Automatic annotation (TrEMBL):
The lineage of its organism: Bacteria, Bacillati, Actinomycetota, Actinomycetes, Streptosporangiales. This is Uncharacterized protein.
Amino acid sequence: MWSVIVGALSALAGVALGQFMQGRREAQGRSYDHRREAHVDFLKSFDHYWDIAARHNPYDEGPAPCDFEADDFDGLYKRLLTVRVFASPSTHRAAEMATKELMAFFGANGKGDQGPLSSAFDEYLRLMRKELGVQ
């Protein structure tokens, strides 16, 4: 009699443990997907703005990079906020620093030294790749 009860409890415990482990793996997979998506969206937006500033010349139609208003960067800052939610603190700080350098580059009409911007962006990429396990 006791052996039947112990066997049934063991079977239930095994099923419960299996479900717990499966749920945990699924949650980790979703977390990875959210982090990856946040980083990819931020990178696309960042690259878009960097490209605008770097390609500008005085004969272009439209505003110069230094004429952009804070509202023009809403898309970038919304994506930076998403990175803040899903990324590690160090990766978020690197993304913030890269954004700060991008804004300085915009202030110089895309004609300033790209060294600090490139360095900050490379540091963000390094931390992002490490966080996502990308070689």
